Amino acid sequence: MVTGHSTAFLGNQFLVVPSTSSSTSRVESPLGGGGKWASISAMCSSSSEKEARERKEAINRKIASQKAISIILRREATKAVIEKKRGSANSRKLLPRTVLEALHERITSLRWESALKVFELMREQLWYKPNAGIYIKLIVMLGKCKQTEKARILFDAMVDEGCNINHEAYTALLSAYSRSGLFDQAFSILDKMKTMPDCQPDVFTFSIFIKSCLQFTMFDKVQILLEDMASRGIQPNTVIYNTLIDAYGKAGKFDEMERTLLEMLGDRECRPDVWTMNATLRTFGNTKQIEMMEKCYEKFQDSGIQPNIKTFNILLYSYGRSKMYDRMSAVMEYMQKYYFSWTLVTYNVLIDAFGRAGDLEQMEYLFRLMKSERIKPNCVTLSSLISAYGRAQNLEKIVAVMRFIDNSDITLDTAFFNCLVDAYGRIGCLAEMRQVLADMEKKGCKPDKITYTTMINAYSRRGMNSQVNELRRREEEFGKMSLDRL
Question: What is the pLDDT of residues 273-282, one digit of tens each?
Answer without folding.
Answer: 999 999 999 9
